[in-house]
Design a protein that fits this description.
Layout (H helix, E strand, L loop, with lengths): L6 E5 L6 H14 L6 E5 L2 H11 L4 E5 L16 H6 L4 E4 L2 H6 L4 H13 L3 E6 L3 H5 L3 H12 L11 E5 L13 H19 L1 H6 L1 E5 L7 H5 L6 E4 L6 H8 L3
Parallel strand pairs: 1-2, 1-8, 2-3, 3-4, 4-5, 5-6, 6-7, 7-8
Helix pairs in contact: 1-2, 5-7, 7-8
The structure holds 2-phosphoglycolic acid.
Length: 251
């Protein structure tokens, strides 16, 4: 048994209007009130201001799904950490596979965002994970190690306390295909070893490593039972209280 606490995060992706987001946030706040773990809701940028007052003072943190690699300036279409801070955002998800693969974000860009977000006091959920062809080619560890090492380049030991890692095998995201608890655990244990090499055994023991990729009420408990799985980053199932709450309160 580890001393780490569980952290269940909802990545709402590009879903919902303000009214829908307010309804979901209100229901989650009520139903998770007695939840024992750490929680996060990460709505689209345009919904953050709506969700912020609803989750304020609850056990649900406020997250964003991305940020610009610069503080401010001529960056059309981007959103800055200063603007997110102004809205009360506490956590930023970075390096999500949809950003890496659909929007061609590379490790250097993600690292720049990670350092900027940390500099401004945000908690960062750094997502890593292999493509199906990389898994089939036996490259899971190489890919996850590279994304971890490069994503954290220049991050100090003190700053690491504000880092959460989310292992999300790309082939499991939004596909209904979940990694088996054993396969996920193997990667989580490996990533923890990489952290130990970079920051020492103590830091590795403390860091939260979430699993993401088709987490559902039916598989949450088996995943969380694994020694090195400390929570979940949930996409599809985070959009409804009926599916997110049972995951958040897994038994
Ligand atoms: P999913 O998404 O739960 O819909 O597979 C997870 C994620 O992308 O964070």
């Amino acid at each position: 048994m580890s001393n780490r606490s569980y952290y269940i995060a909802g990545n709402w992706k590009m879903h919902m209007t303000r009214a829908e987001a307010a309804k979901l946030a209100t229901e989650l706040a009520a139903q998770l009130k007695d939840g024992k773990h750490k929680y996060l809701a990460a709505p689209s940028f345009t919904l953050i201001e709506t969700v912020a007052p609803i989750v304020k003072g609850t056990n649900i943190r406020l997250g964003a799904q991305n940020c610009a690699p610069e503080e401010q300036g001529a960056h059309t279409g981007e959103v800055s950490v200063l603007q997110l801070k102004d809205l009360g955002v506490q956590t930023v998800i970075l390096g999500h596979s949809e950003r890496r693969h659909n929007y061609k974000e590379d490790d250097a860009l993600i690292n720049k965002k990670v350092k900027l977000a940390l500099k401004h006091g945000f908690e960062v959920i750094l997502c890593i994970g292999e493509l199906l062809e990389e898994r089939e080619a036996g490259k899971v560890e190489t890919v996850c190690e590279t994304q971890t090492v490069k994503g954290l380049e220049g991050v100090s030991a003190a700053e690491l306390a504000n880092i959460v890692i989310a292992y999300e095998p790309v082939w499991a995201i939004g596909t209904g295909k979940t990694a088996t608890p054993e396969d996920a655990e193997a990667v989580h244990a490996f990533v923890r070893k990489v952290i130990a090499r970079l920051y020492g055994a103590d830091a590795a023991e403390k860091i939260i490593i979430q699993y993401g990729g088709s987490v559902k009420p039916e598989n949450a408990a088996q995943l969380m039972a694994k020694e090195n799985i400390d929570g979940a980053l949930v996409g599809g199932a985070s959009l409804k209280p009926e599916t997110f709450v049972p995951i958040a309160k897994f038994a």
